Cell division protein FtsB
Amino acid sequence: MRLITLALAALLLLIQYPLWLGKGGWLRVKDLEQQVEAAHDKNEELRGRNAKLDSEVRDLKDGTGAVEERARYELSMIKQNEIYVQILRKGQAAGDGVTPALPASEKPEKPARR
């Protein structure tokens, strides 16, 4: 009787091994599900970034507002028949030609429109 019990216990362990630790076992499936979930999260993040970039590209192709804004802030350009007004900080001479570096939190002033 004891031999049959040991044989059945060994058979039960042999049957359970593939279920838990085998190629298609529950632990492997759980690990793969976590990887799939992480990939879905990453894809959603990338979709959002792509939508933002697509919007910016469409705005640059179709609209002139973004191009004009970049030209004003980054290149200090003005439109024809506009008057440019520059506001100097304390201690800065009007003709010194040196523009102090602005901190990242400050944006340069927009040129005045006429």
User: Anything to note?
Assistant: The chain is about 60% helix and 0% strand. Residues 2-62 form one domain.
